[in-house]
Amino acid sequence: MPADRQLIDAIRSGLAAAADPAKAPEMQRYMKSAMPFHGVPKPQRAAVMRAALADRTLDAATWRATVEALWHEATHREQRYAALDLLGDRRYAAHRGIELLGLYEQLIVEGAWWDHVDELAAGRLGELLDREPDATAAVLRTWAIADDSMWKRRAAIIAQVRRKDRTDRALLYDAIEPNRDDREFFIRKGIGWGLRAYAWVDPDEVERYCAAHELQPLSRREALRNLEKARAKLGGGTDG
């Protein structure tokens, strides 16, 4: 099924029209991106997407083909962001089943930077864990030990940061365990983020875990950063 070329053209032209050449170089430097930016901040990009998607409905095959075309044909980084926006659009939630795991993996490996990977992990993988928990968790456990991509390992670790009390604690720990000694910044930071997010649900358990396991200093510091705030929000601790 071919992509919706009219939609792609509308998104590209909308982003180009919203471009701010004064902002583009700094955005590119901040992201350390080889791909140039238009200089379109997220709120303006969201407006472009709303206008382009208004009164338009795509079937599953066309939607996926359009996401892939936006991603692979991108000349500016905002076009890749637009691909991820379309991928996560609430109107197409019914299309996002377990069969998309291969696409998510491809985008994570090709994106290979936190701005792409973190949205795919926390957004799309977290959503799949709600819909297909066993099948998704099984794949993420293999990603957690992946030798071919540090970004797949980070994705497995942070996939649950938005799941709150739906967090699969065993999966979180299984994703962290083979990576505890890794000195890569994005792995250390990801471990801290994953634990810190769960601390809002069970701060005593996160404190116990950190006391019982050797963690890189950055991971430990990030994990424990909001414990007292979490306890206060929960009304004074948990039973762990």
UniProtKB/TrEMBL annotation:
Domain of life: Bacteria
Pfam families documented for this protein: DNA_alkylation
Name listed for the protein in its UniProt record: DNA alkylation repair enzyme
